[in-house]
Amino acid sequence: MTPPFGHADWNAILPVSIVAVAALLVLVADLFSGAREQRYLPIAIALAGTIVAAAFAARQFGHHYDAFFGGFMVGGFASVFQEIVLVATAGSIVLYGAIGAASRVAGMIAIMLWSACGAMLMSGAANLMMIFLGLELLSLGLYALCGAVDRKTARESALKYLILSSTATGFLLFGSALIFGASGSVRLADLTNPALAASTLFSLGAGMFLIGLVFKLSLVPFHTWTPDVFQGAPLPVTAFMSVATKAGALAVFARFIYAALPPGSAERLLFPVWVVAGISMIVGNVGMLAQHDLKRLLGFSGVAQVGYILVALAGTTALGLRYAIYYLTAYAFMNLGAFAVAAAISGEDEEGARLENYRGLGRRRPVLAAAMTIFLLALAGLPPTAGFLGKILILSSSVASGYIWLGALLIVGTAISLYAYAKVIRLMYERAGEDVPGLRPFVPLAWVSAGVCAALVIAMAFYPLTPSNVLPLVR
Amino acid sequence: MPLVPIVILLPIVAAALCFALPRNDRVVSRTAGTAVALATIAALVAAGDSQWSVRWLSRPFTAAFHFGATPTSLWIALLLALCTACAVATTRVARTRDFVAQMLLLEGTMLGLFLARDLLVFALFWDLMLLPVFFGLMGWGEHPATAWRYFIYNFAGGLTLLLATAAFGIIEGSTDVIGRSGVHLAGAWAPWIYAGFAFAFLVKTPIWPLHTWMPPTYASLPAPMVSVVSAVQSKAGLYGFLAIALALLPDYVREYANPLIVLGAISLIYGAVVALVQTDAKRLVAYSSLSHLGLIVIAVASGNRLALAGALVYIVAHGLFSAALFLVLGYVEEREETRSLLRLGGLGWQNPRLAGALCIAALAALGLPGLAGFVGELLILIGVYQAGYVWPVIVALVAIVLASAYMIRLYQDIMNGPQRSDVTVRADLNWLEALAVTPLLAALVVIGVDPAPLLRL
Fold first, then answer.
1. Facing B124 at nearest CB: one of A384, A399, A426
2. Which residue of B has its CA nearest to A461?
3. Which of B13, B23, B155, B199 is the best residue to mutate to test the A interface, defined by the most A CB atoms within 10 Å of its own CB?
4. Chain-chain contact of A466 with B170 (C-beta, under 8 angstroms)
5. Contacts of B61 in chain A (CB under 8 A)
6. Do B60 and A397 touch (CB under 8 A)?
């Protein structure tokens, strides 16, 4: 009897397996570590794991093949998204160097690594079951992580995320079932069958599937959970959710709209999504205006930023996909950097996310304030940052694909967002009052992470590397 | 390494290095700042019209970090470097070191703008040059709301510029087009692209009714920075019209000339009338700028060769006299701690150098023959008349008469009349301040007598 899966199949998920094994190692190491290395040993193992996994994912980049009977697509697109997820994971894990009780760090890192496995599976998932598997693996870990501190807001955050996210998963699952009912196949490649274009069942299923994804991407009108969950969750978890979850969901979304829709039906099925993206850019940016908490602010910001990325995908052009990936990468560094700064100035408990804590940072921590300024300028799309170039590329894409109204909404949204981001910058360079709370001393990991992200956000503006062979997405 | 990128990088790098200087040593910071600004003048002259280019994007359109002066931009860049040197030399604001850094950043970003030969790089520096002014308003201005108003107006302009640039790039295939002949955009998109550019340029210039950010910004900025902003940054929009709109979309500038001329004429007369009744000296000059720049917009819209030649002369002339006016008003404000025309008076009796400097600058502003302003105005009026626009010329003549009225009033109220007993008259210009305004005034005279180098376009 031949084994159901061969060598190639296991090779395909090698990066995912490495991350999963790293999580186990973290737990084992924690058993034998004393109080001194309790915090840094797990971080070191996790970072090593992500780096090795990233190296293997990079090696797969040029080799396109499908594994698990078409359930998982290796190479190109999947590799790129896996890299982004790994960057997000590493960038979030280093924040545990500054945040959280040392005795709990190992457990949280292990769960985060397993969540990352879910997002990595989603990056390559090419059938509906694999998508669901990845999504659940990602989400289950996050439910635990959100509530992993003793704080009322954290418990509220976890519960809120559990209930709302499960609802969305329900939509996605029911949509998948309907799609399977209409097409008789769970493989995304089989959904391009022209006969499906006329099927009401398929349209209904695809619609519900998309609603589930829109929720995971936290687009309007399913965005209301984002600020609350972001605010309540521990800082590294928020950082992880703001990038890795979005990367995973975007990978599925991109694969679905680019490669899994019957010809002729894309326009009709996706138009509501573009409208939703347009509204998200406005609502997300307006929502930022009234925030007094950095995590909430970045939550709303993420709503709008995903909107920007979808503008690039509108029209489903090959170039648009590359620009979406470029912007997502840039967004990953901006956000991770901003969270690194937040971690570097915050206490272990209260997490320094209140914007009030940033008052006078320019004088007290000029380097951190400068880095934060770069991240905020990038989020606002100002030069000389990757955010600026990303906006240009997305605008070009919207012009080229005929969705210029989305480009115009992007402009309006950006103008609104500027006020919110610049408000934080202004706060940092204002004179601090008398009763400023003491700043924590130098936290090496968070500082280094902020510095690396700042350098990359600037460098990406001048070396716009966009991956070229990310297509084809299904076979 | 070639000289052109050095010209741009020198002030920007120097701005960052400023923070290594001693925090509280005013003389060291401003000496260093002046030296950098003078070095950029030398580098600009040495670089001449050489070019430098590095590929930036190859998809969806080609773009390059392509820099190099055109005849038009070289003059504006020289004006910029000169104004910066003069303004930095006598800076006396609080936290001088940080302020000088902002001034150098402003110089570097604006040099990048004027030397850019690529639309996308132009748009990049367009947004960048807002930052130092924003920080200047935040750190040294009178009210943060002014900074926001400045930033939001101009950033909105920057965004339409960005969208238009992206559309241009997609249609043309390249944004590396400034100063290149033979690129003419046409088609259904072109009017919208022109509209995007024009909005950005008109906000920046500014032109009525988009000018409301300008008077408070000019009144609120410290004198050294406002002299550079009014002298050069306000020319970014006009330069955009000359180098981008007229060169790449000439048909649409011609087609939509009438709205531009009407807006220019309204600004011309509105600015002049409002300047008449201002009691704040800096606001008076701000509104006079609105009026003068309206004239240049009319010249650009007319498309006449003579008017365009005059526009460049007037761009430089306005830069020189508005920089000089704001610098001198800054000196007055430092001494008397007010710039209200109701409180000032009689300063000229004991301060001949101060009075002389303000006198020459004000005379240039009102268009006295023999000074640079006159040459520009005359050429523009003749050119616009030749192009067949009679009524704008009549409006402009009225505004020029009004300009004499408000400029003479400015001089009278500050320098002449009885000395106010409640205002202590302090020292005259010291040698350094005199040295700082002299190049500006001398250039006004030289161009007024012999504008030929500027006219050889």
1. A384
2. B56
3. B155
4. no
5. 396
6. yes
Q: What distance in Å separates residue A432's CA from the closest CA in chain B?
A: 14
Which residues in A lie closer than 8 A to residue B60 (C-beta atoms)? 319, 393, 396-397, 400
- Model confidence over B417-453: pLDDT tens digits? 777 766 666 778 888 888 999 999 999 999 999 988 8
Candidate from B131, B156, B169 with C-beta closest to A396: B169
Q: Is residue A62 part of a domain?
A: yes
Written as one letter, the residue type at A68 is F
Looking at the DSSP assignment, which residues form a beta bridge with residue B54?
B65
Position A428 in a domain? yes
Residue environment code for A223-243, b if the CB has 16+ CB neighbours within 10 A, otherwise e: bebbbbbbbbbbbbbbbbbbb
Beta bridge mates, A73: A66
**Residue A314 domain boundaries:** 7-462
Q: Is A396 a member of any domain?
A: yes
- Cα(B296)–Cα(B314) distance, rounded to whole angstroms? 7
> What interface predicted TM-score (ipTM) does this complex get?
0.74
Question: Where along chain B do its domains lie?
Answer: 256-457
Q: Is the pLDDT of residue A211 over 90?
A: yes
If you count residue pairs, one on A and one on B, with CB atoms under 8 Å apart, how many are there? 70
Instruction: Tell me the pLDDT tens digit for each residue of B9-60.
Output: 999 999 999 888 888 888 899 899 999 999 999 999 998 888 899 988 887 8
3-class DSSP assignment, residue B368: coil
Q: Which residues of A touch B165 (CB under 8 A)?
A: 392
Cα separation, A272 vs B278, in Å, equals 54
pTM: 0.85
CA distance B207 to B3: 35
Q: ω before A221 within 30° of 0 (cis)?
A: yes
Q: How far apart are CA A241 and CA A221, in angstroms?
A: 19
